[in-house]
Every structure is written in structure tokens, then in C-alpha cells.
């Protein structure tokens, strides 16, 4: 232990420190790692896809999955330690954006999103026929994949990521400015609970508060 | 009064939730004015689900660009349908503030997208518009 690379451990340590709720979901942690790497690649920086395998619910870094699943306590301690040692460079802005995006979507939505990538689609037939541990190749990442990443990057602007907080109720993730978030009352949460079953709202649901305290929903 | 190309933010109610507590709000581009009738197309923030399942056949995507539009986020303009009111007046001061309209290129692309296969027209509930949008009035 651990089989995970130092880069992945540092990223997991960062996630554990900053977004424990995302870290505590094995699927969301894997999506965070995948999107961090595709954002890195699209921005022309070093990306690491070693040990990436295809499963029914999307790409999985198998070494991280193994360490996280079978030696969780050690993984928590080691990843936190490697992140705090600061020997591995993490692009904080990218990590924050990726974590925010993962937090703003449900596990199913994230799965649907990673299924769009050619990296996964290239092996879709083998994966869905039940074959295990199908390796996913960086060379399958194509221009269409790049377009998806660019579009996601445009949806989650730095301004939104830096200045917003997410309230998750049921399957809906409501995004508020930090200022409005601090003004939320019990009545607002009751309204959000009602809105959380509205089928016409799609994640992330952007909400502002007007000067009467009324919720203005995008 | 607003004219073709102008953009206004319109509030609409949620079913089963008091509009004193929560309302929906979207930008609408006025794409046609005929006598007192105003026709609008609706703008929505682009979201990840749109990459997965696009529910629109005709649309125009715009990035925030003060030279072209007043949008704060990546925005999709739905050109499968438009919305109209028959007797409502929208003073110019209701226009968006970053810039009050879209540029000629955007409105022309909206025209093309709307007319390429035809579109549905939906009336907006004028009573709700009056109740929720201060400044709009009926003639």
C-alpha cells in the first residue's frame, strides 16, 4: 500500500481536506480524478491516465479504487500526508473547479457525462458485455472529448466556482452566491425541498435571492 | 417601449409554490414586434444535461460577450418556439443592464434558426406577467 500514484494520492488528500462529502463517495471521487485529468490534458498540461479502466458506470482508476475500497484507513492517512507534504503540484483552480462541478451533479448525471467520452465509448461494447478491467487508453481521447471539456469549462466559470455555495436536497443541487447562502432561512429550505422534486429543474440549479428574500430560480 | 433585439428578464410562477416565496426568471429576446404584440425567444443557461440529451432541434449558443449580448453565463437560445403577449407594454428600462439588447448578428441567426423548420408559438399568461413583473403594464 498504496498502489495509487503520488499524483492521485495528493489529489485525493486535497479532496479529503476541502470536500469531504465528495471524497466520501467512491464514484464521485473517481469522477473528480477523471475530470481533473481531462481538464489538465485539454489545457495542454501533464495528465496521468495510468491504471484507468472502464466499468459500467464509467472510467475508474483501478489502483485508487483498490486502495480506497480495501484499505480505506491507510488510504485516508497516506493521501492526507502526501497532500500536506506538498511535494506534488496540484493546480488549485482546476481542482476547485472540478470538485465544484462534481458536487453540482448527481452520481447518475456524472455517469452519463463520462459515458460521452470516446475514451470510454471506444471500449463500451466490451465493458457492457461484462468484461472486467478493460483498459481505457489516453490515445482514444479525441477532439470531441476536448469539445466536451471546453464546454464544461465554460459552464463552470471561475466566478461561479469561487463565489458560490451548493445546497444539495434530494437529487437537486442548488447554487447560491456565498452572500445569499448566508441569508438562507428555514423557510427557504422548505421551499427548496418543494423545488427539489420539480422535474423541470436541471442541475446545477442557479438561485438568487431578491431584496424581499424571495428565491429567483434560473 | 422595447423593440426587436431588446432583452428583458421575465419572471414566471412555479406551480404549487407561492410566488411570494419562489419564482423562475429567464432572459427573453424580443425577436418581433407587430402592433401591440411582442414575440420573444427564451434564453437558458447551458448545463451539462444539454450535452447528454439535447431537447432542442434549433438553438443558438452564445458565450458572454458584451459586444454581442448581455449574458452572464454560457447561454442557449431556444429557437424551437417563441412566446408572445398581445397587449402588454414593456418600458425600455426593463431591459437587461449590461447591455439592453443582442447585436444584429445574433438576432439574424435567431431568425434563421426559427424559420428553418418553423416553430411553435405560445402565449404568456398576461395576468401572471403583470403580477410578477413590476413595470410591465397593459394598454
* Number of helices in the DSSP assignment of chain B: 3
Percent in helix of chain A = 40-55%
Structural class of chain A: alpha+beta
Largest beta-sheet characterization of chain B: 6 strands, mixed
Mean pLDDT of chain A: 96
What structural class is derived from the secondary structure elements of chain B?
Answer: alpha+beta
Describe the protein:
The complex is a heterodimer of chains A (218) and B (139). Chain A contains 13 helices and 7 strands. Chain A has 218 residues and is an alpha+beta fold. Chain A has 2 domains: 6-155, no CATH class; 163-217, no CATH class. Chain A has a 4-stranded mixed beta sheet. The mean pLDDT of chain A is 96. Chain B is an alpha+beta fold. Chain B has one domain (7-138). Chain B has helices spanning 49-52, 104-116, 126-132; strands at residues 7-13, 22-34, 37-45, 59-62, 75-85, 88-89, 120-123, 137-138. The relative contact order of chain B is 0.24. The mean pLDDT of chain B is 95. The chains are: A alpha+beta (218), B alpha+beta (139). Chain A binds chain B through residues 101, 105, 109, 112-113, 116, 148, 151-152, 154-155, 157, 160, 187, 191, 194-195, 198, 202-204, 206, 208, 212, 214-218, and chain B through 11, 14, 16-17, 19-26, 44-49, 51-52, 63, 73-74.
Key structural traits:
heterodimer, A: 218 residues, alpha+beta, 2 domains, four-stranded mixed beta sheet, 13 helices, 7 strands, 55% helix, 14% strand, B: 139 residues, two-stranded antiparallel ribbon, 17% helix
